[in-house]
Design brief:
It is built from 12 helices and 6 strands. It is of the alpha/beta class and 291 residues long. It folds into 2 domains: 75 residues, Orthogonal Bundle (434 Repressor (Amino-terminal Domain)); 189 residues, 2-Layer Sandwich (Endonuclease, Chain A). The protein has a 6-stranded mixed sheet, sandwiched between helices. It is elongated, with a radius of gyration of 22 Å. It comes from Streptomyces smaragdinus. It holds the Pfam family DUF5753.
Length: 291
């Protein structure tokens, strides 16, 4: 095994994803070939020289706006843009990155979320409140990177061709005041907007059914462009990609049962609309079992 071990990086680089470092080196290479200093490049694209230096050193990831600004100035031929998705992927928590790469190629995605609004449907405020409450605490820059990455993933809602998306959200996730009443009010409005998309279905699982297949926890089922069926489960920042056909089949059976026990799409939409207009608008959650 010793011959296959990954060489250790210096401690100063341990927290820098390799894609950020590689992207930064390419920026520096193109900049030097263009005969520009960091200051000259910063002035040309309207960014600070400190940010340009941080990107070149791989200490900060480039945003899409940075890449779009740099490419024509340095005549990169699209090289940096080709890396942007991987740069963004590395902003996600490490335990989630493998699944996120598979998710990006999905043609359908079904999920059950018992505790929180699913990440693909979260508002920026809701997501930031979650990351700000992380234990152990995250640094401000890490929080921003995680929020940016989560919002970037939400592009899946508007893919062309569309991805078939199904979300079953437990009642408890709708009544848990993450970030406070104002944030939850706006989150309910965002759910209403998402539910209006033709490729998105949202169902609410009320508390009244008692025993149901979702009590074992959250799960995701997706189908890739190669028509492979993949499952994913996550708890306490440990994520597991499930590819065994028998286990994925069991996930599918449970999800089908959940869909039959949850409020239907129309009932769920009425409930979410009511919560957006009455419940969280007043800052107080109410029982969400009635359609």
């Amino acid at each position: 095994m010793g011959g296959n071990q990954t060489p250790k990086r210096s401690s100063s680089n341990n927290d820098r994803p390799a894609i950020w470092v590689g992207y930064g080196r390419l920026v520096k290479l193109f900049r030097e070939r263009a005969g520009m200093t960091q200051m000259a490049l910063a002035d040309a694209i309207g960014y600070s020289v400190e940010l340009v230096g941080a990107v070149e050193q791989g200490r900060r990831p480039a945003k899409t706006t940075f890449t779009k600004a740099v490419e024509p100035i340095l005549n990169t031929g699209g090289v940096l843009q080709a890396l942007q998705d991987q740069v963004d992927l590395a902003k996600l928590p490490r335990f989630f990155q493998d699944f996120a790469a598979i998710e990006a190629e999905a043609v359908s995605r079904f999920s059950y979320d018992p505790l929180l609004i699913p990440g693909l449907l979260q508002t920026e405020e809701y997501a930031r409140a979650l990351f700000a409450g992380h234990c152990p605490p995250l640094g401000a820059e890490t929080i921003e990177q995680h929020v940016e990455a989560r919002l970037h993933r939400q592009g899946m809602l508007h893919h062309d061709p569309p991805v078939a998306l199904s979300f079953i959200i437990a009642e408890g996730a709708l009544t848990n005041p993450v970030g406070g009443g104002d944030i939850m009010h706006r989150q309910m409005l965002a759910l209403t907007e998402a539910a209006s998309l033709h490729n998105v279905e949202i169902q609410v699982m009320p508390t009244t059914p008692g025993v149901h297949p979702g009590l074992n926890g959250p799960m995701v089922l997706l189908e890739t462009t190669e028509h492979r069926h993949i499952g994913y489960v996550e708890s306490q920042e440990i994520g597991t990609v499930v590819s065994d056909p028998a286990k994925v089949s069991a996930f599918g059976l449970r999800y089908g049962k959940l869909r039959s026990q949850a409020l239907n799409v129309e009932e769920s939409a009425r409930l979410i609309n009511r919560m957006a207009g009455d419940t969280w608008n007043s800052g107080m959650p109410v029982a969400a079992t009635a359609p």
